[in-house]
Amino acid sequence: MARSRAAYEYTEAEDKSMRLGFLLIAAGLLSLLGLGCCWLRPALQERGGGGSANCTVLAVRQLGERFACTFSCGAACRGTARYPCLQVLVRTSRSSAPALLHEDERQLRTNPKCSYIPPCARDDQENSENVTYKQKYWKEKVGSQPFTCYFNQHLRPDDVMLKRTHDETVLLHCFLWPVVTFLVGVLIVVLTICAKSLAVRAEAIKRKKH
C-alpha cells in the first residue's frame, strides 16, 4: 500500500503542471463570468432590439451650441478645446420619422446631441474645420444615396448608428478566448494525470517482470 501511494505521488514538475492547468481553468471560468456580466450581456441587450436598415440623409446642419473635448499634447500636458455640433438627420426604411445619425454606440453615449465628434485638437478652429469637412462629406458625397445604418428600437428609438461597436466578431472573441483558456487548462490536467497513470502502470509491469 505504501509503495502504491508513493508511486502515485506527483513529482515537482507534474505538480507545477497540475497547478498551471487548474489556474487556466479558473481563469477561463472567471473570464467568462466577468465578461458575461460586465460586457457581453449589455452588448447583447443593445443588439437585442436592434437591426439594420437603409438610411437616407434628410438634413445636415451645424447647431450654434459648442461642446468641450479634452486634448493631449504630452505626458503632462492636457487641456480643453471646443467643437461645433454637427447633426445629420436621416430617414430609415423602417420608419418615416427622422432620426439622428451617430458614428457608433460609443459616440452616442459620449454626446447624444451630435452626429460627429472630431479628434480633439488644441485649436478650436481646427476642430471647426474638421466638423465642416464632415458636413460637406454628408451633403456632397453622400447626398441622397442610401446607406446601411443600425438602430435599436428599445434603447434609442430616435437614433441610428453608422456602425456597431459590438459586432459579431467582437462578441465571438469575447466568448472564444475564455473557452480556449478553460479547455487548455483541462487538457493540461488530463494529460498530466494520464501520463502519471501510464508511468505507474509501466513501473508496475516492470516490477512484475523482475
Automatic annotation (TrEMBL):
Where in the cell does this protein reside? Membrane
Q: Which InterPro entries match?
A: K_chnl_Ca-activ_BK_bsu
Gene Ontology CC, one term: voltage-gated potassium channel complex
Arranged from A to Z, the UniProt key words for this protein are: Glycoprotein, Ion channel, Ion transport, Membrane, Transmembrane, Transmembrane helix, Transport
GO biological process terms, alphabetically, are: detection of calcium ion
Q: Does the keyword Transmembrane helix belong to this entry? A: yes
Q: How does it sit in the membrane?
A: Multi-pass membrane protein
Alphabetical list of Pfam families matching this protein: CaKB
Q: Does the keyword Cell membrane apply?
A: no
Q: Which residues cross the membrane?
A: 20-42, 175-199
Lineage, top-rank taxon, reads Eukaryota
The identity of this protein, by name, is: KCMB4 protein
Q: Name one GO molecular function term.
A: calcium-activated potassium channel activity
- The gene it comes from is Kcnmb4
